[in-house]
Design brief:
The chain is mainly α. It is built from 9 helices and no strands. Helix 3 (37-63) runs parallel beside helix 7 (168-192) and helix 3 packs parallel to helix 9 (225-253). The protein is elongated. Bound molecules: zinc ion. Zinc ion binds next to helix 4 and helix 5.
Length: 254
């Protein structure tokens, strides 16, 4: 399912005469980190959450001296519950972003229909504020308005871009899938490790996976790999440590 911004871009592209509108020097294509932000954030968040919550669950249940079958049942239940809640949470939050975008665009469309001159002056003002002189800004505003008024206002006035457009289903599926992948890692380790090695092996391997994930996310986002890895590892170790403590106390109590 595409968002309101995609619809505008698609309509503008459909209306555009490709050869005449795009004559001139070939555009060299460069990829910016910003293009990856949308899906990267959901994917890393999902995988990270999957590893931390499932590894903590497995370590906590194992710390309560439970049999391997109980540890795995708890882990699988955690995976399913976590994936569903991630998907639901992401879908709801991105849908509300999509609703806001749709409402803003509907208002913009109305204003373009009722007060086109004021909208043109507004667009001119935006280009003047960006450094164009008033005459040139006027001509740019006129040409872009003729080319696709709503697209120009969506991009330059509202700041909407297709790179950041809200795609609820895509975001929900991405985070649920990544949560499941993340959660499967400690589960596989718990399934193959000797019983009395489940806690140390699940903890160590999960921290390793998290450090790799943190470093990967930092690299893809153009940030420091080491800092990314350390940040994720520290907070995850804290979460797992506290859960193991609770599991140990709970195990001793029952
Ligand atoms: Zn406007």
């Amino acid at each position: 399912m595409t968002g309101p911004i995609d619809d505008i871009a698609a309509r503008a592209d459909a209306g555009r005469a490709p050869s005449r509108a795009r004559s001139g020097p070939p555009v060299h294509r460069e990829r910016h980190f910003a293009e990856r932000i949308g899906w990267l954030r959901a994917a890393v968040l999902g995988a990270n959450d999957g590893i931390v919550s499932t590894a903590s669950l497995v370590v906590g249940v194992a710390a309560a001296e439970s049999a391997r079958a109980n540890v795995l049942i708890a882990g699988v239940a955690g995976l399913v519950a976590g994936a569903m809640s991630m998907a639901a949470g992401e879908y709801i939050s991105v849908s509300s972003q999509s609703d806001t975008e749709r409402a803003d665009l509907a208002r913009e469309r109305r204003e373009l229909a009722t007060t086109p001159d004021a909208e043109l002056r507004e667009l001119q003002g935006i280009y003047v504020a960006r450094g164009l002189d008033p005459d040139l800004a006027r001509r740019v505003a006129e040409q872009l308005t003729a080319h696709g008024a709503l697209e120009a206002h969506a991009r330059d006035e509202l700041g909407f871009t297709t790179a950041h457009a809200a795609r609820p289903v895509q975001a929900a599926l991405a985070s649920a899938a990544m949560f499941s992948v993340g959660a499967a890692l400690p589960l596989i380790v718990a399934a193959v490790a000797p019983s009395r090695w489940i806690i140390p092996l699940v903890s160590a391997s999960s921290l390793l996976f998290l450090a790799l994930l943190g470093g990967l996310a930092a690299t893809a986002g153009g940030a420091s790999r080491l800092r990314g890895a350390l940040r994720v590892t520290f907070w995850s170790a804290l979460a797992m440590g506290l859960t193991a403590l609770v599991g140990r106390l709970f195990g001793a109590a029952v």
